[in-house]
Design brief:
Layout: E1 6-12, E2 21-26, H1 27-40, E3 46-47, E4 50-54, H2 57-62, E5 71-76, H3 81-85, E6 92-96, E7 99-100, H4 106-112, E8 119-126, E9 129-136, E10 138-139, E11 164-168, H5 171-176, E12 183-188, H6 190-195, E13 202-206, E14 209-210, H7 214-222, E15 229-236, E16 239-246
Antiparallel strand pairs: 1-2, 3-10, 4-5, 5-6, 6-7, 6-8, 8-9, 11-12, 12-13, 13-14, 13-15, 15-16
C-alpha cells in the first residue's frame, strides 16, 4: 500500500513547467499543523528568539571546534526566552531537549515542535567548553520590525589590517539596537570585502567578544597572527551572522 511522506508546497523550475525541484512539507509537520487547527483554530510554535547559522569549517576553526556539528548562535533578542535562559552569541548548540543538533536546520524543527512554556535542557559549546543550560521555550511572535542602517556617516577612522574602516555608533543608532554596542562599516576592502562584509553593516563583535570601540576592535585584530581565521559578528538589516575572515597580514 502507499504511504504519504510529505505534501508538495512549491516547485523550482527554470522552464516554468513541471520539470525541476519539488519542495515538500514532511508529513509529521503537516499532521501536527492539522491537529492544531482542528483543536485551536490556530498554529502555535515554539520560539527561542535567536538567529542561527550553519557552522562552516572556517567558523568552527575560529571558535576552536573540532567538527562542524551544531547550530551557531549569531544573535540573541533582548528579553527573549534564549536571553533569559543564558544563551549568548557565539554559542554552538549541540543538543536541544535531548536531541542532537547536527546541522543548523535541526534546531528550528526541534524548537518549533516544542510546546511553549516547556523548560528544556540545552547543551552548548562556549569558548571551547561544554555548558548545560535550562531554557524556557516561548511562543513564536507574529510581527517583526525592520531596522535601517544609515547610508553615510562621517568622520571615519583609518582602515584596519583586514580592510575595514569603522565608526562607533551614535546614541540614536544604539537606541535602535536596544542599547547594543557596535561599529558601523564605512568602507570594506581587502580580506573583509572578499569575505562579504560591506558598507552599512554593523560589527557587533569578534568571536565571543563584544565590539566596544574602534580602538579596541582594531587592537584585537592586530593581535591575531597571520593565517588564523577569525569570526566577525555582523548585523545586516534585521539579521545577524558570523563572517569568517582569514588574517593574511
Amino acid at each position: 500500500r502507499g504511504e504519504v511522506v510529505g505534501i508538495n508546497s512549491q516547485i523550482y523550475s527554470r522552464s516554468g513547467g513541471s520539470m525541476g525541484l519539488s519542495f515538500s512539507i514532511p508529513i509529521d509537520v503537516a499532521i501536527d499543523v492539522s491537529n492544531q487547527l482542528k483543536a485551536n483554530g490556530k498554529i502555535t510554535r515554539g520560539w527561542l528568539g535567536i538567529a542561527i547559522q550553519e557552522l562552516t569549517k572556517d567558523l568552527a576553526e575560529s571558535f576552536g571546534m573540532k567538527n562542524t556539528n551544531g547550530a551557531l548562535v549569531a544573535g540573541v533578542e533582548k528579553n527573549s526566552p534564549a536571553d533569559k535562559g543564558g544563551l549568548e552569541p557565539g554559542d554552538v548548540i549541540t543538543k536541544f531537549d535531548g536531541k542532537p543538533i547536527i546541522v543548523s536546520a535541526d534546531l528550528p524543527r526541534a524548537v518549533g515542535a516544542t510546546k511553549p512554556g516547556k523548560v528544556v535542557p540545552v547543551e552548548v559549546t562556549r569558548k571551547g567548553l561544554a555548558k548545560s543550560l535550562n531554557v524556557g521555550v516561548g511562543q513564536m511572535p507574529t510581527d517583526s520590525d525592520e531596522e535601517e542602517v544609515p547610508a553615510k556617516v562621517v568622520p571615519k577612522s583609518e582602515s584596519n589590517k583586514i580592510g575595514l574602516t569603522l565608526k562607533e555608533l551614535t546614541p540614536q543608532q544604539k537606541k535602535k539596537l536596544n542599547g547594543k554596542n557596535g561599529l558601523l562599516v564605512i568602507e570594506s576592502t581587502g580580506t573583509a570585502a572578499q569575505a562579504g562584509i560591506r558598507r552599512g553593516d554593523v560589527i557587533l563583535g569578534l568571536n565571543n567578544s563584544e565590539s566596544q570601540s574602534v580602538e579596541l576592535f582594531n587592537k584585537q585584530i592586530n593581535a591575531v597572527p597571520a593565517g588564523k581565521t577569525i569570526a566577525v559578528l555582523v548585523l545586516r538589516g534585521d539579521n545577524t551572522l558570523y563572517v569568517p575572515i582569514k588574517v593574511i597580514k
